[in-house]
Amino acid sequence: MSEDPETGTSKDCMLMSHFEEPKLSDDEEPPTEQDKRKKLLALEDPVHSVSLQHFVYEKLKAQQALMGDPGFGVLMETVDTVLVRQLQEFLQNL
């Protein structure tokens, strides 16, 4: 996660939404066709196309639906309190 300077909120820095040609300075060479293919391939990788926050949230919601609210509450009581707090902080900006 990194802070978005425009909005001041946290954003997933691994997400890439589309292919952009990088702006080059005078002393840089343009990307090769191989570089472009690598970039396009990386865009297909789930690590660059799926938000970790949304993924974790959806998995927790699915588990809660599967177990029911009481069962999920009991399960979450077994999780370390520091981890629960970190999860809450991580998911608060959804």
TrEMBL record:
<feature type="domain" description="Importin-7/11-like TPR repeats">
    <location>
        <begin position="7"/>
        <end position="91"/>
    </location>
</feature>
<dbReference type="InterPro" id="IPR058669">
    <property type="entry name" value="TPR_IPO7/11-like"/>
</dbReference>
<dbReference type="Pfam" id="PF25758">
    <property type="entry name" value="TPR_IPO11"/>
</dbReference>
<feature type="region of interest" description="Disordered">
    <location>
        <begin position="1"/>
        <end position="37"/>
    </location>
</feature>
<protein>
    <recommendedName>
        <fullName>Importin-7/11-like TPR repeats domain-containing protein</fullName>
    </recommendedName>
</protein>
